[in-house]
Amino acid sequence: MMNFNGLIEHARSVRVNALNMIYRSKASHIGSGYSCVELLVYLYSGWLKVSPNLLLDPNRDRFILSKGHAAAVYYAILAEFGFIPKEWLDKYCQINSLLGGHVDHNVSGVEISTGSLGHGLPIAVGMALAAKRNNKKYRVVALLSDGEMESGSNWEALNMAGAQKLDNLIVIIDRNGLQAMGSTEQILPMNNLDQRINSFGCFCKTIDGHNFNKIHACFKRIPFSSGKPSVIIAKTVKGKGVSFMENKLEWHYRSPNNEQFEAATRELKQL
Ligand SMILES: Cc1ncc(C[n+]2csc(CCOP(=O)(O)OP(=O)(O)O)c2C)c(N)n1
User: Fold this and answer.
1) Per-residue pLDDT tens over the stretch 125-177
2) Does the reported pTM lie above 0.90?
């Protein structure tokens, strides 16, 4: 049985660390990171069969953060779960730091570099196909943003994943409804996203992406259907955890000033 209190504590710690990193370096994408904290904490708290000792194990599960601009939160996750030293976070986005503003595979625990949207899922499909061909049991998880579903490469990849019956592939779409310059619905509506995904031979479920009970209930059932990729549309809130950032477009690029940093720190302590 999982201890959800422990997971909530990890989520708080990751949000605090990412806030410090982004404030210190005047970097961006805090809202993008905050929307996927619970999903990442859940995956790294035990669901993924990967650990700092298993980095080169050919049977390890593979995780790809396709929305590589959420690097601050992902690096905070890697530090939280022992893949990199916590002190490295202090140098995030600074000269001579290994930790830059987009996810880099030179960092221990990172499978592939990401940041140019639309590439994570096609690579994940290749990895999942390789597992099937080589009779390996590992699973491949790709976490995408919703705006990223505007890239045709993702639909090509889903089409292939369904056709190849990749039930070792798990796709999570961080459905926070906002992208860089507006809402996803203003920029390119995603009508019937779940039905469109299912029509490619995948099995899609929609969950609350911040609720550990719901996330756990969903992940226990993977694969949702034998012979089909499992796709999770995780309904999330961009900027989740800090009231004045939640669902606010400007927190895609904005970096907190002193007052905002202090107010956010106070709120995160009370969560
Ligand atoms: C191929 C490509 N084009 C443009 C960008 C610039 N860019 C960075 S984040 C972003 C959109 C963010 O919205 P979304 O993809 O929904 O992610 P969110 O941060 O909301 O989770 C864009 C267009 C990019 N990283 N890659």
Assistant:
1) 999 999 999 999 999 999 999 999 999 999 999 999 999 999 999 999 999 99
2) yes
Ligand 1 centroid vs 147 CA: distance in angstroms?
Answer: 7
Q: What is the DSSP letter of 46?
A: I
- Pocket test residue of 179, 236, 248, 250 for ligand 1, highest count of atoms within 8 A of CB: 179
Our count of domains for the chain comes to: 1
Give the number of other CB atoms < 10 A from CB of residue 250: 9
Q: Which domain holds residue 193?
A: 4-270
175-189 residue pLDDT tens: 999 999 999 999 999
Atom of ligand 1 nearest to the CA of 151: 1
Q: Is residue 45 within 6 Å of ligand 1 at its C-beta?
A: no
pLDDT digits (tens, 9 = 90+) for 88-122: 999 999 999 999 999 999 999 999 999 999 999 99
The CB density around residue 57, as the number of other CB atoms within 10 Å, is: 12
Query: Can you give the CATH number for the domain in which 82 is found?
Result: 3.40.50.970
| H or E segment and range at residue 144 | strand 140-145
